[in-house]
Amino acid sequence: MKPTIRKAVIPIAGLGTRHFPASHAVKKELFPVVGPDGIARALFHYHLLELEAAGIEEICLIVQPGEDDMVRDYLNGPGPAYLKRLEKYPALLREAEQMRRFAGRISFAVQHEQEGYGHAVCQTKAFAAGQMVLLGLGDHLFRGRPVSPYLELAQMSAKSGGRSVSAVNRITAGELKGYGTIAGRRHPENLRIIDVSLIIEKPAVAVAREKLIVDELPSETWLGWFGLHLLAPSIYDILEEMIRDNLRDNGEFQLTRAQEIQRQREGYLALEMTGAERFDFGVPDDFVRSVQEFRGKI
């Protein structure tokens, strides 16, 4: 099934504080990650590869002021002398050619102030232009069998009736503090699809036990954000309302709050990821582990 959406957003505007001082020298999303094919690419580069494979035509990167030049320099690749040296390595030469093609398809949205994930996403309203967009965490990578999770979520646009859809996966009590978490009921014709009845960002265990119930889950197991979202265009109006009214959580404008408001107004779906993996590069220890695991996955 061909996706009916064309656009994706990847936020890479974070400061990378937990990777300091390395992130002071090199932006976190430009850290090298070796793929299963043995080629070392910048972390964010893998999003472009997966999105292209999923049929996404336009990609917007959210950056800090001035970082667009850094990304363009990476994608434009080396000059003629270096390219000449790459002729001995055909696979790497093909990488350089593909990167230049990406450079012509990427646009940028600038987040001038660090005001939270929701604030960052709001900067892409003009790019979205009233269409649904696929949103992925910039410091995570995703892989699935037999279908890419990017493609699988994009295909939900044909089934969602215009509603937003978030990828979710199973988490335990110790993981609740890191993720938006849902309650809801599964669709009888497809148990992986959930009609969401509540969304809470990083709930306490007691709250999750009381309120965040999804049928067909083992005890002490919940469904939390996987890191990929298919967002209906009304999310931008809600984020603008939150910014106008200064509606913050922990000092920031949070996307999860906007998603819960959207759910209340028009409904919301979730898709449980059962054959997909998430690789977290957000903190140093997770980065080391994910570099090794990502390299070994086929």
Detailed description of the structure:
By secondary structure, the protein is α/β, with parallel strands linked by helices. It has a single domain (7-296), classed as Spore Coat Polysaccharide Biosynthesis Protein SpsA, Chain A (Alpha-Beta Complex), CATH 3.90.550. Helices cover 35% and strands 27% of the residues. It contains twelve helices and 13 strands. It has helices at residues 22-25, 45-53, 67-76, 80-86, 90-103, 117-122, 125-128, 149-155, 205-211, 234-244, 255-266, 284-296, and strands spanning 7-11, 32-34, 40-42, 58-63, 106-110, 133-136, 140-144, 164-171, 180-187, 190-201, 222-231, 268-272, 276-280. The strands form three sheets. A five-stranded mixed β-barrel has the order 8-11-9-10-12. The protein has a two-stranded antiparallel ribbon with strand order 2-3. Strand 2 (32-34) and strand 3 form a beta hairpin. The relative contact order is 0.17.
